[in-house]
Amino acid sequence: MAAAVVRVCERGLLRRSGALRAFGSPLRRSSSAGGGLLLSLHKRGVLKDSFPENAAQDRLPQLLQSAPQTVYCGFDPTADSLHVGNLLAIIGLLHFRGAGHHVIAVLGGATAQIGDPSGKTSERERLSATSVEANTQTIRESIQRIFTNHEMYFHDSHRTLGTATVLNNMSWYKTWGVVEFLSEAGRHFRMGTMLSRHSVQARLKSPDGMSLTEFTYQVFQAFDFHHLNQTRGCRIQLGGTDQLGNLMSGHEYIQK
């Protein structure tokens, strides 16, 4: 994860999403609290850019300044511990929380069993449900410990601290049947768009190709954001630069 990518989804009158592709001169001119937070994260190398490209320099800082927002990032428990690639995403969540925004760490108890093809030249080794469940528990404890330690030892007690929540996406997928899920969510995704994603194109050109399981991963990550948007008012997602295709899928799904 070279850097984090932030994506914002706005609802209501501002149904179109606004975000920042590159934190350049327009953001430097912003004196708002929202603009200051984004500029600080950019200077620290935590944030690289944002999606979508339009209306970013004003709308996202204004959104962050208008009221506490909900920000989420996903972590697939494919191993029994966090790794260095998770560091920037966690730092990003801590900074948003320290600025008074609510943060959610979503553990991919469901998506880890599917496997994210991003950045991979071959299919991930399939993990058993038992392994994923065990990994989920240890990573949950690690993230909760990080949130607690940040609050105890690093947060400025004179500033309002946002809430921190850890969820498992298995909790909303376990109630869905395959046919029901495809009927509800699948109709909102276009094959041409999904095939155009860089992660898909790279795998299709590889000797091993891509399985149907991996191909559907972007649908599940998109649905995660849609679910959090609907149930928790989540408008912003953090993710690694290799996740841009998945982030775009979620943004497009929410707009439909």
List keywords for this structure.
6 strands; about 45% helix; 12 helices; about 10% strand; Rossmann fold
* Rough outline: globular
Structural class: alpha/beta
For the termini, the CA-CA separation is: 29 Å
Secondary structure: number of strands = 6
Return the domain count.
1
Integer average pLDDT: 83
CATH architecture: 3-Layer(aba) Sandwich
Unreliably modeled segments: 10-32
CATH superfamily: HUPs
Q: Summarize the main sheet.
A: 6 strands, mixed
Question: What is the top-level CATH class?
Answer: Alpha Beta
Enzyme class: ligase
InterPro entries: aa-tRNA-synth_I_CS, aa-tRNA-synth_Ic, Rossmann-like_a/b/a_fold, Tyr-tRNA-ligase, Tyr-tRNA-ligase_bac-type
Organism: Oryzias sinensis
Keywords: Aminoacyl-tRNA synthetase, ATP-binding, Ligase, Nucleotide-binding, Protein biosynthesis
Helices, strands, pairings?
Elements (H helix, E strand, L loop, with lengths): L3 E5 L16 H4 L4 H11 L3 E5 L4 H11 L3 E6 L11 H12 L3 E6 L21 H26 L9 E5 L1 H4 L4 H7 L6 H6 L1 H7 L7 H4 L1 H16 L3 E5 L3 H11 L2
Parallel strand pairs: 1-2, 3-4, 3-6, 4-5
Antiparallel strand pairs: 1-6
